[in-house]
Write a structure and sequence with these properties.
Strand content: 35-45%
Helix content: 25-40%
CATH superfamily: 2,3-Dihydroxybiphenyl 1,2-Dioxygenase, domain 1
Number of helices: 4
Structural class: alpha/beta
Largest sheet: 4 strands, mixed
Low-confidence stretches: none
Strand order of the largest sheet: 1-4-3-2
C-alpha cells in the first residue's frame, strides 16, 4: 500500500490552481470536468511528476460538513496538511517574496523546523524540514 494522492478542500479551484502552481511550484497533472462546474484537478511536485498527487477538491462548496470542518481547522490555526521541504527558512523567504502570508514563521520544534502559511483557498498548510 502506498499514498498516491491527498485531497485538500479548496473554496475556488481556479484560484487554488494558480496559487499551487505559480506560488508553490507544483505542476498541473489532471484537469477533468466532472459535474456542476467542478473538476478532478490535481497537481504534483515539479521534480516528481509521477509521485503523489494533490487533489484540489471543491468539497467545501458542495458538502456543508466539509466547509464547517475546513473553517474550524483554520479558525483554530491548525494546518490542513503538510509538505516536506529541504530548507524551511529558504522556502519561507521565497514564499514571502511572492506575498504568501505566514501564520507561523520558521520555528524549530525538536528534530524538525516548521512554518505555516495561508493557501488563500481556506487552509493553512505547514511546511516541514527534518533537522
Amino acid at each position: 500500500m502506498k499514498v498516491q494522492g491527498i485531497g485538500i478542500p479548496v473554496l475556488d479551484q481556479d484560484r487554488a490552481l494558480k496559487f499551487y502552481t505559480e506560488k508553490l511550484g507544483f505542476v498541473k497533472k489532471h484537469d477533468v470536468p466532472v459535474s456542476e462546474g467542478n473538476r478532478w484537478l490535481t497537481v504534483v511536485a515539479k521534480e516528481d511528476q509521477e509521485g503523489p498527487e494533490v487533489l484540489l477538491e471543491p468539497a467545501p462548496n458542495n458538502f456543508e460538513p466539509a466547509k464547517i470542518y475546513q473553517k474550524a481547522l483554520k479558525d483554530a490555526g491548525i494546518p490542513y496538511t503538510q509538505f516536506n521541504v529541504n530548507n524551511v527558512q529558504e522556502e519561507y523567504e521565497r514564499l514571502v517574496d511572492l506575498n504568501v502570508t505566514f501564520s507561523v514563521k520558521p520555528t524549530v520544534m525538536g528534530t524538525v523546523k516548521i512554518a505555516v502559511f495561508d493557501d488563500t483557498c481556506g487552509n493553512y498548510i505547514q511546511i516541514i524540514e527534518t533537522l
